[in-house]
Amino acid sequence: MTTHPHDPAVVGSFAIQGRLGRGAMGAVYLARSPGGRLVAVKVVRDELAGDPGFRARFAREIDAARKVSGAFTAAVVDADPDADRPWLATEYLPGPTLQKAIETSGPLSPSGVQSLASGLAEALMAIHASGVVHRDLKPSNIVLTDNGPRVIDFGIARALEEASLTATGMVIGTPGYLSPEQITGTGIGPASDLFALSAVLVFAASGRGPFATGNPASMLHRIVHEHPHIPPLPGPLHEVVRRCLARDPAQRPTPMEILQLLGPPVPTALLHPPTIVLPPATRVLPPTVGGALPVLPTPVPPPAGAFADGPTPGGVTGPAVVGASFATSRIRPVVFAAITTLLCLAFAPRDPQLQVLHPIISTLLGLVSLTFLYFAIRHWILVLRPKVVLRLSPQGLTVNRAYSEATIPWSGVTRLHVGGDSKRPWLIAWLEPQYANKLPISHRRHHGGLRVYPIAHGATHARRQTQVNELRAALNWYAGRIHDNSY
Predict the structure, then answer these.
(1) Is this prediction's pTM over 0.85?
(2) Which residue of the set 7, 136, 153, 193 is catalytic?
(3) Does residue 312 carry a pLDDT above 70?
(4) CATH number of this structure's domain 94-275, picked from the four choices 1.10.510.10, 3.40.50.2000, 3.40.50.280, 3.40.50.1970
(5) Is 78 marked active-site?
């Protein structure tokens, strides 16, 4: 538990004891109610408190959390979405998150995974019965208590009866636990939580998700286009995970079907949560009778290589988001340029007598040589063209070309589109006037936009298509509101 000079002493009627952690939305504090009960209080950051759209979203989170309060979640104690800094107080759950438990003690036993599966299926059944889709079920949103797993954090939950408020193409959630329909923006519903449940179970059983790790764009691409890796699981649990990971939501079982497939719960605890007792924070109000305070674990950073200091798109604070990078390659053009150059020289007629005695053969050889020369020149142009590196991150769009680099913030980009034909696709950007000449590019125009990155022009068709798909996924993740994903 940490403290900070600017931490509040009181939020609503709750006395702050110390800070539990900080995420993208704000800080979470351990506090005591007027009657001495422990609660977890989430307080929104100052810069977000002034955003009417965010206030509306936070109010929806409170409504969603209140709808599902019960034995399977952290009950809402109090909230004030209209305060200067909106806040939400929920029941304090003494126990580690699944993320922390796996990182501390390793994967769960087979019986532990089955108990987790039954507990989460029961929790999702109650959540969906309340008319809510969680949409961000992941290990750090699951707390392991003595009475089974509890699901927390309904920050991006959506009521079943609501129309989606997400912008077209915008991906909201955590890479690795998003369903294909969340990534593509089609038909998000209760089945989306079942896909996330299976990814959580794979993580609990093996310590890694079914789609490995990496930058968010690559993970999103694998979820939509590749098969998951499912470790060996006992009995019906393997079948449950396999069916829940189906790309078609209609093929996934319901929580009730999962409980029926798994049968009676295994009479064993998920794990023995470590008792965490920390000394009182230095910025604590007069102590309350009851001794040392237990504390929730601090947020766990995402897998190495995905993020570096700052909040991640999924709301976890960890190292700053590096983002997704794409770079042009010279390997294939060099090989083809060398081969076609050698063939051009090999077919070039050199014997003057051949030109006199066999003019037709000499002419044909000359034409073949010129044909290879044409292809050699085309590939040498690709070889000599400066390498271009494109990076997409929460900060904006960065282009590096020939040792020159510039970043355009997303506020300076009005539209992004993958254009051109299948053999020579480009990333096209429409920029605000003040940024039109900032990028180190050739400023080739395309229907009013600028061609900022040649997508795998020197690669094979398969590699080119893969990079197009990965780039589209990255655009949806980092710039979904301005990504025109029409084909």
Answers:
(1) no
(2) 136
(3) no
(4) 1.10.510.10
(5) no
